[in-house]
Amino acid sequence: MPDRTFNVLFLCTHNSARSVMAEAILNKIGAGKFRAYSAGSQPRGAINPNTLTLLSGLGYSVSGYRSKSWDEFAKPDAPQIDFIFTVCDDATGESCPVWPGKPMTAHWGVPDPSAAKGTEVEVALAFRQAYRSLERRVSAFAALPIASLDQMTLQAKLKDIGRMPGASAKAGP
User: Fold this and answer.
1) Are 33 and 4 in contact (CB under 8 A)?
2) What CATH number is given to the structural domain containing 32?
Protein backbone atom coordinates (compact mmCIF):
# COMPACT_ATOMS: atom_id res chain seq x y z
CA MET A 1 0.00 0.00 0.00
CA PRO A 2 1.34 3.43 -0.85
CA ASP A 3 2.44 5.93 1.79
CA ARG A 4 -0.63 8.20 2.05
CA THR A 5 -3.51 9.14 4.33
CA PHE A 6 -5.76 6.14 4.91
CA ASN A 7 -9.50 6.47 5.50
CA VAL A 8 -10.84 4.33 8.33
CA LEU A 9 -14.50 3.68 9.16
CA PHE A 10 -15.53 2.43 12.61
CA LEU A 11 -18.93 0.74 12.66
CA CYS A 12 -21.33 0.03 15.49
CA THR A 13 -25.05 -0.52 15.45
CA HIS A 14 -26.11 2.82 16.97
CA ASN A 15 -23.05 5.02 16.30
CA SER A 16 -23.41 6.67 19.68
CA ALA A 17 -20.52 5.44 21.84
CA ARG A 18 -17.76 2.98 20.81
CA SER A 19 -17.49 3.88 17.13
CA VAL A 20 -17.44 7.58 17.98
CA MET A 21 -14.72 7.03 20.60
CA ALA A 22 -12.61 5.08 18.10
CA GLU A 23 -13.06 7.81 15.48
CA ALA A 24 -11.94 10.47 17.96
CA ILE A 25 -8.92 8.46 19.12
CA LEU A 26 -7.64 7.70 15.63
CA ASN A 27 -8.14 11.26 14.40
CA LYS A 28 -6.03 12.43 17.34
CA ILE A 29 -3.19 9.90 17.37
CA GLY A 30 -3.18 9.16 13.65
CA ALA A 31 -3.44 12.72 12.34
CA GLY A 32 -1.72 12.97 8.97
CA LYS A 33 -1.58 9.18 8.49
CA PHE A 34 -5.28 8.40 9.00
CA ARG A 35 -8.66 10.07 8.65
CA ALA A 36 -11.27 8.32 10.78
CA TYR A 37 -15.04 8.25 10.45
CA SER A 38 -17.79 6.42 12.29
CA ALA A 39 -21.27 5.24 11.42
CA GLY A 40 -23.98 2.80 12.43
CA SER A 41 -26.33 0.35 10.82
CA GLN A 42 -29.22 1.71 12.92
CA PRO A 43 -27.96 5.08 14.13
CA ARG A 44 -29.52 6.33 17.31
CA GLY A 45 -29.66 9.88 15.98
CA ALA A 46 -27.63 11.34 18.83
CA ILE A 47 -24.29 10.66 20.47
CA ASN A 48 -24.61 9.17 23.95
CA PRO A 49 -24.12 12.01 26.46
CA ASN A 50 -21.65 9.86 28.44
CA THR A 51 -19.50 9.55 25.31
CA LEU A 52 -19.44 13.31 24.89
CA THR A 53 -18.67 13.87 28.57
CA LEU A 54 -15.80 11.38 28.50
CA LEU A 55 -14.25 12.68 25.28
CA SER A 56 -14.62 16.30 26.33
CA GLY A 57 -13.04 15.52 29.70
CA LEU A 58 -10.08 13.96 27.90
CA GLY A 59 -9.53 17.11 25.84
CA TYR A 60 -11.26 16.12 22.61
CA SER A 61 -13.35 18.63 20.72
CA VAL A 62 -16.80 17.06 20.40
CA SER A 63 -18.47 19.72 18.29
CA GLY A 64 -18.55 17.84 14.96
CA TYR A 65 -19.81 14.45 16.06
CA ARG A 66 -23.21 13.14 15.02
CA SER A 67 -24.84 9.74 14.88
CA LYS A 68 -25.07 8.75 11.19
CA SER A 69 -25.89 5.81 8.97
CA TRP A 70 -23.29 3.67 7.31
CA ASP A 71 -25.22 4.28 4.07
CA GLU A 72 -23.45 7.67 3.86
CA PHE A 73 -20.17 5.83 3.26
CA ALA A 74 -21.51 3.51 0.56
CA LYS A 75 -22.49 6.38 -1.76
CA PRO A 76 -20.42 7.19 -4.87
CA ASP A 77 -19.37 10.61 -3.50
CA ALA A 78 -18.27 9.23 -0.10
CA PRO A 79 -14.60 9.07 0.88
CA GLN A 80 -12.87 5.91 -0.37
CA ILE A 81 -12.54 3.79 2.77
CA ASP A 82 -9.36 1.73 3.19
CA PHE A 83 -10.18 -0.01 6.49
CA ILE A 84 -13.45 -0.86 8.24
CA PHE A 85 -13.54 -2.03 11.85
CA THR A 86 -16.69 -3.20 13.61
CA VAL A 87 -16.49 -2.36 17.31
CA CYS A 88 -19.69 -4.00 18.48
CA ASP A 89 -20.74 -7.60 18.16
CA ASP A 90 -24.16 -6.80 16.70
CA ALA A 91 -22.71 -4.87 13.74
CA THR A 92 -20.34 -7.68 12.81
CA GLY A 93 -23.25 -10.00 12.00
CA GLU A 94 -25.33 -7.53 10.02
CA SER A 95 -25.55 -7.37 6.26
CA CYS A 96 -23.26 -4.51 5.32
CA PRO A 97 -23.51 -2.36 2.24
CA VAL A 98 -21.15 -3.11 -0.62
CA TRP A 99 -18.16 -0.91 0.11
CA PRO A 100 -16.48 0.69 -2.88
CA GLY A 101 -12.80 -0.21 -3.18
CA LYS A 102 -13.09 -3.39 -1.08
CA PRO A 103 -11.53 -2.09 2.16
CA MET A 104 -9.75 -4.39 4.60
CA THR A 105 -11.98 -5.31 7.53
CA ALA A 106 -11.67 -6.69 11.05
CA HIS A 107 -13.84 -7.07 14.11
CA TRP A 108 -12.62 -5.26 17.23
CA GLY A 109 -15.54 -5.96 19.56
CA VAL A 110 -15.69 -4.04 22.81
CA PRO A 111 -18.46 -4.42 25.42
CA ASP A 112 -21.17 -1.77 25.05
CA PRO A 113 -20.81 0.90 27.73
CA SER A 114 -24.30 2.18 26.85
CA ALA A 115 -25.69 -1.05 28.31
CA ALA A 116 -24.04 -0.42 31.69
CA LYS A 117 -26.38 -0.34 34.65
CA GLY A 118 -25.81 1.08 38.08
CA THR A 119 -24.77 4.35 39.58
CA GLU A 120 -23.51 7.31 37.59
CA VAL A 121 -19.98 6.37 38.67
CA GLU A 122 -20.41 2.75 37.52
CA VAL A 123 -21.73 3.86 34.13
CA ALA A 124 -18.86 6.35 33.75
CA LEU A 125 -16.42 3.54 34.58
CA ALA A 126 -17.92 1.38 31.80
CA PHE A 127 -17.35 4.22 29.33
CA ARG A 128 -13.76 4.69 30.52
CA GLN A 129 -13.09 0.95 30.18
CA ALA A 130 -14.46 0.93 26.62
CA TYR A 131 -12.34 3.98 25.80
CA ARG A 132 -9.16 2.36 27.17
CA SER A 133 -9.81 -0.83 25.23
CA LEU A 134 -10.38 1.10 22.02
CA GLU A 135 -7.36 3.30 22.64
CA ARG A 136 -5.11 0.21 22.92
CA ARG A 137 -6.46 -1.20 19.66
CA VAL A 138 -6.35 2.07 17.75
CA SER A 139 -2.81 2.77 19.00
CA ALA A 140 -1.66 -0.69 17.88
CA PHE A 141 -3.25 -0.10 14.48
CA ALA A 142 -1.74 3.37 14.08
CA ALA A 143 1.72 1.95 14.87
CA LEU A 144 1.57 -0.68 12.10
CA PRO A 145 4.00 -0.16 9.22
CA ILE A 146 1.12 -0.45 6.75
CA ALA A 147 3.12 0.52 3.67
CA SER A 148 5.62 -2.29 4.25
CA LEU A 149 3.17 -5.13 5.00
CA ASP A 150 1.67 -7.46 2.41
CA GLN A 151 -2.12 -7.83 2.52
CA MET A 152 -2.17 -11.23 4.22
CA THR A 153 0.17 -10.12 6.99
CA LEU A 154 -1.73 -6.87 7.47
CA GLN A 155 -5.07 -8.71 7.64
CA ALA A 156 -3.65 -11.09 10.26
CA LYS A 157 -2.38 -8.17 12.34
CA LEU A 158 -5.79 -6.45 12.13
CA LYS A 159 -7.47 -9.61 13.43
CA ASP A 160 -4.86 -9.94 16.20
CA ILE A 161 -5.67 -6.40 17.34
CA GLY A 162 -9.30 -7.47 17.71
CA ARG A 163 -8.19 -10.22 20.11
CA MET A 164 -6.35 -7.88 22.47
CA PRO A 165 -7.38 -7.86 26.16
CA GLY A 166 -10.84 -6.44 26.65
CA ALA A 167 -12.24 -8.03 23.50
CA SER A 168 -15.88 -9.01 23.53
CA ALA A 169 -17.07 -12.58 23.17
CA LYS A 170 -17.27 -12.58 19.38
CA ALA A 171 -13.69 -11.45 18.73
CA GLY A 172 -12.86 -14.97 17.59
CA PRO A 173 -10.00 -17.38 18.30
Assistant:
1) no
2) 3.40.50.2300
